Amino acid sequence: MIRQLDFFFYFRKIQKIIFGVFISLGLLFLNSCGEKEDPLPEGFDFVTDFELIPYDSVFVIWQGTHELNLTPKFFGAFGDEITLEFNPSIQYFIDGKKSSNPPRIPLHQEKEFELYGKIGRIKSKTLKIRVIDVDPKTYVSKFKASMADSTKAPYAISGRSFVDFNASIYDYRGKEFPENEKPDYKFFFDGKVLESLHRVPVLRSGEIPFWVEIGDKKSEVEILFSRELPDLSRKYSLPIIFHIIHSGQEKGTTENPSQEKIIELLHETNEWLQGRKSSQLRKGHNQVDPNLEFFPALIGPDGFPLPEPGINRVFSEKNSYLYGDEKTYKYLFDNMWDPNNYVNVFVMNVDGAGGFAFYPPLSDEKLSRFYGFVITKRLNTFTMIHEAGHFLGLPHPFSVGKYCLNGDGFMDTDSYNDDTKKTKSLFKTNCDGEYFYPTNVMDYFPSVHNSFTLDQVNKMRSTIDIGYFLPTNVNPNGRSQSKPWVRGVFDPGVKPIE
Ligand SMILES: [Zn+2]
Fold first, then answer.
1. Which of 108, 153, 173, 359 is the most buried (most CB within 10 A)?
2. What is any one GO biological process for this UniProt entry (predicted)?
3. How far is the CA of 462 from the centre of ligand 1 (A)?
4. Pairwise CA distance, residues 460 & 457, whole Å
């Protein structure tokens, strides 16, 4: 009995082995004669992951089937994107079943499909593709109220600002309706429905709510921060001296600009700083005029009247000065006039910058570096105002490098990263990835450079009020009275800003 059982046991085992061998051979045969995989492209060894980016992932019920438009994106072991010479062929799966390439989905009923692709052993992330039963002309998947690109920062000056709004309404695919195809909506600003979203006057200060309503649904409520314009009627007048650095060229040449050219630059600068200059290009919606001016200094450090008001012509063997070079900064320090009596501006050839400035000193200790700014002989009004902004304590509104940060700490300027910004005609992208119309004087190109904001104006005026080593606010006909200035020992550690 025992032997019989043993035999039976062995028989079953041999039967299993023979059967297994047959199955394996069969699979081998099927494999070698079955579907052949396309060769994988060069570089594919590095691919550890891929994603399928659908052109659309939501469709409206219809007859028949729809061919999906999918773009593969490949990634390496560290999540870095890999570009392949050509795309390998992909086996698609819809709801777990092999599908055609390109994949097709039936549209005749509401349904959610799960789709993924496989290349060799690598499987993509799963996508959800939906078929929904809605009217595509009126179906709204989401909507929101926002400031328009032209007036992005949600800050305004009561009684002065005109603001543009935007109602973003998204269709069944999650794409924004074009302006002329938007379903009916109402835009509320401060509780009232707006007739037009363009150039809306801001008539009060405080936190002003705005939102969009579609049918009985309401978007999130956004806030416009509106402020009263403070009293800026007191004009700040600062005596200025242009040190024109030349190498012996005749007066009136580009290298040694005439008095007229300097007066013209000063006039243009003052017109801008007091808001008397209009621009064909729209100013910032929260733009404020600083109401300050520079006037040509009349008297030299020796107490005698200057032959040319506001101008000091300095001979130098050196034709050009290098930005970033300590020697340049030492030269400026050695040659500046008492900063308590003059705003020092050097007009010189600069290698590596279009102009630069030193920020205000943080204490009234001995001044051991240059305080003033430098412009080139192009005598560009914008450069002049931009550097004057730095001189009076304004940083750039943007950040550079890895992160997108608020570059100046002011809330009413647009924050962006100048290295990574995208531009579209006159627009730049802010830290939220939205386009905005850059108008700030402290921007780099592209910007229309015709506006300061209230926070910036407050900063500049307070620098004049409480800053160190600045001519006190004097009458254009008078002269400031300050304590005598002692030149410290040059400190190369303090760097300027472009
Ligand atoms: Zn700058």
1. 153
2. proteolysis
3. 19
4. 5
Task: Reply yes or no on whether the pLDDT at 18 is more than 70.
Answer: no
Distance 496 CA to ligand 1 centre (A): 9
Residue 326 Cα to ligand 1 middle (Å): 19
Backbone angles phi, psi at 44, to 5 degrees: -70, -25
One-letter amino acid for residue 190 of the chain: D
What are 362-383's pLDDT values in tens digits? 988 889 999 999 999 999 999 9
Instruction: Fill in the amino acid letter for 450.
Output: N
Burial 397-435 (b: 16+ CB within 10 A, else e): bbbeeeebebbbebebbbbbbbeebeeeebbbbbbeebb
Three-class secondary structure of residue 221 per DSSP: coil
What's the rounded Cα separation, in Å, for the pair 78 and 337?
Answer: 57
Which of these ranges, 31-45, 46-60, 135-149, 262-276, has the smallest mean pLDDT?
31-45
Dihedral of the CA atoms 17, 23, 25, 27 (nearest 10)? -150
Q: Ligand 1 centroid vs 413 CA: distance in angstroms?
A: 15
Given the DSSP bridges, would you call strands 236-246 and 292-296 parallel, antiparallel or unpaired? parallel
Confidence of residue 9 (pLDDT cuts 50, 70, 90): low
CB 315 within 8 A of CB 486: no
Of the chain, the end-to-end C-alpha distance in Å amounts to 101
Q: How far is the CA of 21 from the centre of ligand 1 (A)?
A: 78
Please state, in angstroms and as integers, the Cα–Cα distance from residue 67 to each residue in 107, 116, 393, following that order.
10, 15, 59
Q: Structure tokens of 495?
A: 């760097």
Query: In this predicted structure, what is the pLDDT of residue 42?
Result: 78
Residue type, 90: I
% of the chain surpassing 70 pLDDT: 90
pLDDT tens for 201-221 read 999 999 999 999 999 999 999
Let me know: does 46 contact 82? Beta carbons within 8 Å.
Answer: yes
pLDDT digits (tens, 9 = 90+) for 318-355: 999 999 999 999 999 999 999 999 999 999 999 999 99
Q: Which tokens is 34 given?
A: 């079955």
Q: Which domains does the chain have, with CATH numbers?
A: 44-132 (2.60.40), 142-227 (2.60.40), 236-394+452-466 (3.40.390.10)
State the distance from the centre of ligand 1 to the C-alpha of 431, rounded, in angstroms.
Answer: 19
Strands 222-227 and 155-157: parallel
Query: Residues 131, 111: contact at Cβ < 8 Å?
Result: yes
pLDDT in tens, 96-134: 999 999 999 999 999 999 999 999 889 999 999 999 999
Three state DSSP letters for 355-419: EEECCCCCCCCCECCCCCEEECCCCCHHHHHHHHHHHCCCCCCCECCCCCCCCCCCCCCCCCECC
Burial of 21 (0-12, 13-18, 19+ CB in 10 A): exposed
